[in-house]
Amino acid sequence: MQGFKCRFCGSALKNRVVDLGMSPLCESYLKEEQLDRMEPFYPLHVWVCQHCFLVQLNEYVKAEEIFTEYAYFSSFSSAWLKHAEDYVAMISERLGLSSTSFVVELASNDGYLLQYFVKKGIPCLGIEPAANVAKSAEARGVRTDVSFFDEAKGRALGETQKADLILGNNVLAQVPDLNTFVAGMPHLLKPTGTVTIEFPHLMRLLDENQFDTIYHEHFCYFSLISAERIFAGHGMTIFDVEELWTHGGSLRIYARHAADESRPVSDRVLALREREEAAGYRKLETYTRFEEQVRETKRKILELLISAKRQGKRIVGYGAPGKGNTLLNYCGIREDFLDFTVDKNPYKQGRYLPGTHIPIFDPARIDEVKPDYIFILPWNFKDEIMAQLAHTRSWGAKFIVPIPAPTVL
Ligand SMILES: [Zn+2]
Q: Which of these, 117, 113, 125, 114, lies nearest to 98 by C-alpha position?
């Protein structure tokens, strides 16, 4: 670890949060003919800046290599679609959006969210770097600009039309150049406009052992404290915050121009900031003690799987999410434990998980082989998945949920 600097404040990074070893890119699903080839693995080491407390990964891989053909189509999760629809209803009412407003989504994926603005007749634009997913957005009637958002892009768009609302869900963590990304927002935002950004909450990640949400695509991990500092650094103020269930616990922050004092900073911001301070988020040891917690979680997961295999049980996976790949690679779980996994996304079916080479099938395969255990990789959707697979109880199947601590349900 030499010469890497904090991507917000530029201080040298010296304190490690966790070392998850070497891992392939978690969205690089393999075709059969790739299985006999060399596969690139990159370090998965997380650091914390001792000056601004931003938790971050180095840019071991260029973002362009990761996001130009992305396998993650948001529309394959019904819970996620519902979340998007509820958000659109809530924010349209809260901000009084209408046919004369303008909404921009940063990293709009396949138009899973903006489609609800289109239905309401609220003009909107998506910005999405992955051409393959942008194409499905256009097919849904969502106008999409295939590009990365940065300061120059924000300025160029803002010269034509400024936005009443800029939103970004699960993108802030994924931009390698955090400063130029955030710096683009004020150029595009109307003087009284609102920015809402959702990101996984670092406090939940550390408290609940969510180490599998760490992957090369996620360059940064935010607390409210670190997010406030970054937005302030670019002339914006976080004036409200909500805690959400998504991705194991996320924050939705509301930001405005610092000069727009029409909306004061809410009690919710003050209360959460105090909670983070009380939990030690301005002390290094809060971050550096995470590694031992992660190692112990790995030991417990393996203990459970080894004991099931010794009893001759058949275990399969459910889901092929990015987080599953971090978990399986870090724990060294291959077909020696999981016969296969399944996923509803047809793009992934017939392919193999990166690194572990576990095959991915259509969910119907579970009914054919009737396994004893179903290991739920996207544990954040465990309720939805267990409800969908309720019929597997008829042959006595049980579910394994690995995080926060491995549990059999
Ligand atoms: Zn820093």
A: 117
pLDDT tens across 350-404, in order? 999 999 999 999 999 999 999 999 999 999 889 999 999 999 999 999 999 999 9
Rounded distance from Cα 165 to ligand 1 centre (Å): 28
- How far, in Å, is the centroid of ligand 1 from the Cα of 7? 7
Whole-prediction pTM: 0.90
Cα separation of 103 and 146, whole Å? 16
Using the mean position of ligand 1's atoms as its centre, give its distance from the Cα of residue 55 in Å. Answer: 8
Asked if residue 1 has pLDDT above 90, the reply is no
**Ligand 1: centre distance to CA 283 (Å):** 14
Instruction: Say whether 91 sits in a helix, a strand or coil.
Output: helix
Measured in Å, residue 10 CA sits from the centre of ligand 1 at 6
Count other C-beta atoms under 10 Å from residue 138's C-beta.
15
Give the distance (Å) from ligand 1 centre to CA of residue 225. 12
Distance 54 CA to ligand 1 centre (A): 6
Averaged pLDDT, 322-337: 96
- Ligand 1 center from residue 49 Cα (angstroms): 5
Task: List Cα–Cα distances, 226 to 24, 58, 244, 259, 265, in angstroms.
Answer: 28, 17, 18, 20, 16
Task: Tell how far the Cα of 128 is from the centroid of ligand 1, in angstroms.
Answer: 27
Q: For all residues of the chain together, what is the average pLDDT?
A: 94
- Residue by residue, DSSP assigns 236-283 as EEEEEEEEE-GGGSEEEEEEEETT-TTSPPPHHHHHHHHHHHHTTTTS
Structure tokens at 209: 């052992």
Judge contact between 6 and 52, C-beta under 8 A. Answer: yes
> What pLDDT shows up at residue 62?
75
The CA–CA distances, whole Å, from 373 to 212, 216, 271, 304, 310 equal 20, 29, 42, 11, 13
Q: What's the rounded Cα separation, in Å, for the pair 165 and 123?
A: 11
Q: Encode pLDDT of 90-130 as tens digits.
A: 999 999 999 999 999 999 999 999 999 999 999 999 999 88
* CA distances (Å), origin 229, targets 113, 182, 185, 307, 361: 28, 12, 15, 47, 44
Amino acid at 335: E
Strand partners, 46: 18, 57
Q: The tokens 């407390």 sit on which residue?
A: 53
In the structure, ligand 1 is a single-atom ion and the residues with CB under 5 Å from it are 6, 8-9, 11, 49, 51-52, 54
Alpha carbon of 363 to ligand 1 centroid (Å):
44
